[in-house]
């Protein structure tokens, strides 16, 4: 499977990819996007099986990416990995069609429980 | 209007959680190492919370600690300057996101900014809290400033 990791921080993209491995999700192809606009473009060009997206990004934030995808008819599985995990944001994410919201700092266990239904 | 703000023990708990997870080290609070604060270069990363409580959140540390943070986050021995700036930005972003969740909402978090040197808050800002933790003998501070103190008094 192909996973798109969208975060404006290269450091955080590396941590997310490392945590994927630690959670047992190695062996998947990973594509990186450095902002929301890049993520939207790469969903169309790379056709990932899962999108892991930060919320707060330049160019286009994560929830706008999700809204744009759903508006265009895309049903790609989409989850947030973000520093903010308030109820307000979880509700907004769910309403937008996100499968989950993982709050930073996260653990391999939180990745395992959130991603297993999609990747296993 | 009375708004309960961040209690020092809650801030320390968040620092402990974030450090443990991201840096894989327990912060040591309490007696500070004997360092010359005027010596060497300081790196500071900030984010701003906008909402019922407007807050500037800043973490500052000596360059050596900033390089250590980046090394731990990226698991590399010799991070580039760009890596260090990115790592500190992500550290304050995660700290800020967790602190924001304890403040009244709805509110938004800015993108992080990392600079070399100290950050001078706006003249009307008021320091709300400060904690200092020690990483390998070097102090790393986390300071919160109220940007609109009148709104919460």
UniProtKB/TrEMBL annotation, chain A:
Protein name (record): Response regulator
Keywords tagged on the record: Phosphoprotein
PANTHER family: TWO-COMPONENT RESPONSE REGULATOR, TWO-COMPONENT RESPONSE REGULATOR ARR22
UniProt xrefs under SMART domains: REC (SM00448)
UniProt-listed GO biological process terms: phosphorelay signal transduction system
Keyword RNA-binding among UniProt keywords: no
Species, as recorded: Nocardioides mangrovicus
Record Pfam families: Response_reg (PF00072)
Domain Response regulatory: start-end pairs: 2-119
Modified positions (4-aspartylphosphate) in chain numbering: 54
TrEMBL record, chain B:
Keywords: Chemotaxis
Pfam families linked: CheX
InterPro entries: CheC-like_sf, CheX-like_dom
Ranges of residues in domain Chemotaxis phosphatase CheX-like: 44-124
Protein name, per record: Chemotaxis protein CheX
GO annotation (BP), single: chemotaxis
Domain of life: Bacteria
């Amino acid at each position: 499977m192909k996973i798109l990791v969208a975060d404006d921080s290269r450091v955080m993209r590396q941590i997310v990819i490392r945590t994927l491995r630690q959670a047992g999700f190695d062996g998947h192809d990973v594509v990186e996007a450095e902002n929301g606009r890049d993520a939207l473009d790469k969903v169309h060009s790379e056709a990932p099986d899962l999108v892991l997206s930060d919320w707060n990004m330049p160019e286009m934030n994560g929830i706008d990416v999700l809204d744009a995808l759903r508006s265009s008819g895309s049903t790609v599985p989409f989850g947030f990995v973000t520093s903010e995990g308030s109820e307000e944001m979880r509700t907004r994410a769910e309403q937008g069609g996100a499968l989950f919201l993982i709050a930073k700092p996260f653990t391999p266990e939180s990745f395992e429980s959130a991603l297993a239904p999609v990747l296993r | 209007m009375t708004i309960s703000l961040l209690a020092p023990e809650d801030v320390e708990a968040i620092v402990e959680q974030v450090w443990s997870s991201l840096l894989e080290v327990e912060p040591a609070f309490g007696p500070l190492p004997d360092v010359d604060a005027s010596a060497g270069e300081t790196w500071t990363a900030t984010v701003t919370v906008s909402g019922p409580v407007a807050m500037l959140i800043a973490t500052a540390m000596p360059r050596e600690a900033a390089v250590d943070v980046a090394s731990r986050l990226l698991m590399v021995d010799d991070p580039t300057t760009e890596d260090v700036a990115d790592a500190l930005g992500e550290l304050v972003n995660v700290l800020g996101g967790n602190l924001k969740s304890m403040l009244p909402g709805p509110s938004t978090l800015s993108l992080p900014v990392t600079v070399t040197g100290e950050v001078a808050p706006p003249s009307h800002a008021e320091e709300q809290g400060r904690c200092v933790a020690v990483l390998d003998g070097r102090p790393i501070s986390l300071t919160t400033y109220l940007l609109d103190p009148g709104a919460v008094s």
